[in-house]
Design goal:
Low-confidence stretches of chain B: 328-346
Low-confidence stretches of chain A: 1-6
CATH topology of the largest domain in chain A: Immunoglobulin-like
Number of helices of chain A: 8
CATH class of the largest domain in chain A: Mainly Beta
Strand order of the largest sheet of chain B: 1-2
Order of helices and strands of chain B: HHHHHHHHEHEHHH
Largest sheet of chain B: 2 strands, antiparallel
Distance between the termini of chain A: 98 Å
Strand content of chain A: 25-35%
Distance between the termini of chain B: 69 Å
Radius of gyration of chain A: 30 Å
Mean pLDDT of chain A: 92
Oligomer: heterodimer
Shape of chain A: globular
Shape of chain B: globular
Helix content of chain A: 10-25%
CATH superfamily of the largest domain in chain A: Cupredoxins -  blue copper proteins
Largest interface: A-B, 54 and 70 residues
């Protein structure tokens, strides 16, 4: 499938012009979310979630300071939906964050819902459904915020949006059912069937010699991280997750699910050949590599469309740029006075239903009956007590202005990209693979960088650890989770309740938000269990299955005792029979038999 | 120090050899006590030879299949037996359980005969023509005649293949130098137990010895049945999870929690050779992960055993099975007393 660069550039250019005329416009989108069919890898046609009959879904584009209004109609018919604007701070509009069951009730089939917020930050973002497991079915698209005051504006000539994703031939709901089942005790995540670039394969980007392009690269995948490189060209990283960085040269970058990079790529001055752009899924994430899986996806920088499109050569090893080394252009210093530090220890284990769950500190996330934002808004001063959000919400209450430190120990042999809503986080420490617990590493603040890299999605390595810091300057209820969608399904989620008292006095929930809850009978007040009288009474709250019984339960003891008694009774019967003399009838039979055989007696 | 002793391999060899040598030594001791001291060395020798033929022939087949598997592993590069391993174990287990149970009862019954009658019945079995009669009866007589061959044959076959599979499973991580000593020690230790049983039983009275050894055989057989059911269930579970559950160790995922009666995350008789738990498993059918299937089959087996022996005693005394009408002619003859048989035959 061919795609001209001008397709991407034209609307962006127009918007740039508009933004020069009036700095605060209102950008309105009317999105009808509905099922369409698609076949992006040419292997399998499947039902896909599109918008207004189209898939891939459109890119959202706005300027810093713009008001964005998104009118969503759920035309799916058989599933709830909703949109989350990944990476946007939503300062003052937490209710527009789109985290289902946390900051709103999902939009029921046939329902309408309006998101209305002001853009506060520039950069490369994306929007996607935050209904559990939904976005990999197609509801994921770029969200580009242009910056009239960009410090890197003069460093490039044109910009190009390039998305990466992974693609499943099966729909997510049956895949989720198989994933969270007793027959998947190891929690093996379904492996995608294909890698995509701009939601297709073999895309072409027409380029001009000598020009510098800024590629806004977004990994919108469900699971797979991708290595990306431009054959024959080097990249200069200038932005990660909306944070401008000092330009950093890289031959290869690594994007976990949900991460974004803007890279500058300067074209060669001769047009004698075209060059591949390669995305390669990180196979370390996959428990088993299915036969015939092609983990790579290729697009081309086309200097001359009469020349052939060369196949990408194999690389000897993956050696991507380590984003820990990046330095933000604003030189925001290390947050060195920590007010509240806590651990999030990651592990995977099986619960009593046999399925494999993911845990933060011994608790796997289960959605509370009441969306946590509504709990925070309806519980007065008790909103500062994390217990009322339910043990399975993994709730932490942060007070306004505090510097928060999250120490994360990954006690799982997999890589995990952790994402926080509403914030950028400073990555002040990241260990290598297999480093064990942070507490055992003898790392002190002196070892932290003076101007740490910030972003909203951070990789933690297998059995390694990271330390993240941010200032609690954004009142709201913010999700913190692994952005591998399978791990959201298995519960690798925590809830940051930030300045709930201030939220109560500042936030207004629009009527259509309450209507979405009413339509589905979801309570909108009280603690996690929906209790409004005694807020500390969590009886009736949603909880995870009980742990697997360890060792002998009553049932096992009874069975073992029965078995032993049966064995002894059996042996008693044998002994009784063996000790008794042969009966008269039997003896006669023996005599008869011997006689019949003709052996002399 | 180079690794010259693979402990898991030792335990595998030991426990597989143990079961075989128990059965062989019980059979040999039985023959020696019933026939060897008595008048007919010819029949005795023939039956002893049957036992050794069965053992040897079983061993030969195991070696051939084992070599084939090793060849396939290094030639084709994969464990050809592994996907069907549990099916084999299950089938062999059930067959071995049946044979041990039938022969165990028969031996115990024979022990109750007086010496001279034992010789006579042995001769009678030898003399019986196996070529005539209806097919069912013919098979029964054939089986009776060659029981002393069949039992060790099937046992060796089963244990040997199991050993090959297990060693194939755990042993590949060890260098070749770690094998010989471990295999020899394992087989030696197993054989030693057999010799001790054989020697030990010479001191005991035949009937006592046979009661004890039959109890032991039935313990083994009950364990076999339970393990066979467990093997079939493990095969089904492996298919459901699309992999080898044993790869998950003994913890969650190594078993189907829906079927679980008890599960302890240790003491697995299958993992890494099984160690002492493996021995415990082959003697008594121990498992760290019991299911409804394995527990029910184990208990059911003992119920069948109890009912069978009680019925046999009843039949021997009355000439008909419990709850069935006796034939008129036998009832009139049989006056069930416990002592008259010996007196009559004396």
């Amino acid at each position: 499938m061919a795609m001209s660069l001008s397709n991407f550039v034209a609307p962006i250019f127009l918007l740039l012009c508009f933004s020069l005329l009036s700095r605060a416009a209102t950008v309105t989108y009317d999105f009808n979310v509905e099922w369409v069919t698609s076949n992006p890898d040419g292997q399998f046609e499947r039902r896909t979630i599109g918008i207004n009959g189209q898939w891939p879904i459109p890119a959202m584009v706005a300027n810093v300071g713009d008001r964005v209004i998104v009118n969503v109609h759920n035309g799916l018919g058989d599933w709830t939906t909703g949109l989350h604007f990944h990476g946007l701070f939503q300062n003052g509009t937490n209710q527009m964050d789109g985290a289902m069951g946390v900051t709103q009730c999902a939009i029921p089939p046939g329902g309408d819902f309006t998101y209305n917020f002001t853009i506060q930050q520039p950069g490369t973002y994306w929007y996607h459904s935050h209904v559990k497991g939904q976005y990999p079915d197609g509801l994921r698209g770029p969200l580009i915020i242009h910056d009239p005051d960009s410090p890197i504006a003069n460093m490039y000539d044109e910009e190009v949006v390039m998305t990466l994703s992974d693609w499943y031939h099966d729909e997510m709901r049956p895949l989720m059912a198989d994933f969270m089942s007793v027959t998947n005790p190891t929690g093996a995540e379904p492996v995608p069937q294909a890698a995509l670039m701009n939601e297709t394969q073999n895309a072409t980007f027409a380029v001009q010699p000598g020009r510098t392009y800024m590629f806004r690269i977004i990994n919108m995948g469900a699971f797979a991280a991708q290595y990306v490189w431009f054959v024959g060209h080097t990249m200069r990283i200038v932005e990660v997750d909306g944070v401008y960085t000092e330009p950093a040269e890289a031959n290869m970058i690594y994007l976990t699910a949900a991460q974004r990079y803007s890279v500058l790529v300067t074209m060669k001055n001769d047009t004698s050949a075209n060059f591949p752009i390669v995305g390669s899924m990180d196979e370390d994430l996959f428990d088993a590599i299915p036969d015939g899986l092609n983990s790579n996806v290729t697009s081309w920088l086309v200097y001359d469309d009469s020349k052939p499109l060369p196949a990408a050569e194999f690389v000897d090893e993956f050696d991507p740029y380590d984003d820990y080394e990046l330095v933000p252009i604003d030189a925001m210093p290390l947050l060195d006075q920590v007010d509240y530090s806590f651990n999030l220890d990651v592990k995977m284990d099986n619960l009593g239903d046999g399925a494999n769950y993911a845990f933060f500190n011994e608790h796997t996330y289960v959605h509370p009956k009441v969306p946590s934002l509504y709990t925070a808004l309806s519980t007065g001063s008790e909103a500062n007590n994390p217990a009322i959000y339910g043990a399975n919400s993994n709730a932490f209450v942060l007070q306004k202005g505090e510097v928060i430190e999250i120490v994360m120990n990954n006690e799982d042999p997999g890589k995990h990209p952790f994402h926080i809503h509403g914030h950028h986080m400073q990555l002040v420490h990241r260990s290598e693979d297999e480093a064990g617990l942070y507490e055992d590493m003898n790392v002190t603040q002196a070892d932290f960088p003076a101007t740490p890299m910030r972003r909203d999605t951070v990789l933690v390595r297998p059995n390694g650890n990271i330390v993240l810091r941010f200032r609690a300057d954004n009142p709201g209820v913010w999700f913190f989770h692994c952005h591998i969608e399978w791990h959201v399904v298995s519960g690798l989620v925590a809830t940051m309740v930030e300045a709930p008292t201030e939220l109560q006095s500042t936030l207004d929930i629009p009527e259509d938000h309450w209507a979405a809850c009413r339509a589905q009978g979801i309570p909108t007040a009280g603690n996690a269990a929906g209790n409004t009288e005694d807020l500390l009474d969590l009886s009736g709250a949603e909880t995870s299955p009980d742990p697997l019984p360890a060792g002998f339960t009553a049932r096992g003891i009874v069975a073992l005792v029965f078995s032993i008694v049966a064995a002894f009774l059996g042996m008693a019967a044998i002994s009784w029979y063996g000790a008794a003399p042969l009966g008269e009838v039997a003896m006669q039979q023996v005599q008869k038999r011997v006689a019949e055989s003709g052996v002399e007696t | 120090m180079p690794n010259v002793f693979a402990v898991p391999v030792f335990f595998i060899c030991f426990r597989e050899c143990l079961e075989t040598s128990i059965i062989v030594s019980v059979l040999l001791a039985f023959l020696k006590q019933t026939l060897g001291l008595e008048s007919d060395p010819q029949v005795y020798r023939r039956l002893v030879r049957q036992v050794w033929w069965g053992t040897g022939f079983g061993l030969l087949i195991v070696i051939i299949i084992g070599c084939g598997m090793i060849g396939a592993f290094y030639g084709v590069g994969r464990d050809t037996f592994a996907p069907t391993e549990n099916i084999w174990e299950g089938v062999f287990g059930i067959i071995a359980c049946l044979i041990i149970s039938l022969i165990g009862a028969a031996l115990l019954r024979v022990s109750k005969l007086q010496d001279k009658w034992r010789v006579k019945i042995a001769k009678a079995l030898e003399a019986r023509d196996t070529t005539k009669g209806v097919s069912g009866g013919r098979f029964k007589r054939w089986a009776e005649k060659y029981a002393m061959f069949l039992l060790p044959f099937v046992t060796v076959l089963r244990e040997g293949l199991e050993a090959v599979i297990f060693i194939g499973g755990v042993g590949l991580g060890f260098p070749a130098t770690a094998f010989p000593l471990a295999v020899i020690c394992g087989l030696g230790a197993g054989a030693l137990v057999g010799v001790l049983i054989y020697k030990g039983c010479s001191f005991a009275k035949l009937q006592i010895f046979l009661i004890i050894s039959t109890c032991f055989l039935y313990l083994v057989a009950a364990g076999l049945l339970s393990r066979a059911v467990g093997a079939f269930e493990a095969d089904k579970w492996n298919k459901e999870i699309g992999g080898d559950a044993a790869e998950t160790g003994s913890g969650p995922g190594s078993y189907d929690i829906r079927q679980s009666v008890w599960h302890v995350n240790c003491c697995s008789p299958a993992l890494n050779g099984g160690g002492g738990w493996g021995v415990f498993n082959s003697l008594f059918g121990w498992t760290n992960s019991a299911t409804y299937g394995t527990v029910i089959s184990y208990n059911l087996y003992w119920i069948v055993v109890i009912v069978s022996f009680v019925s046999m005693r009843y039949y021997e005394q009355t000439g008909h099975w419990p709850l069935m009408k006796g034939k008129a002619n036998t009832v009139s003859v049989a006056k069930p007393t416990t002592t008259n048989v010996r007196e009559v035959s004396e």
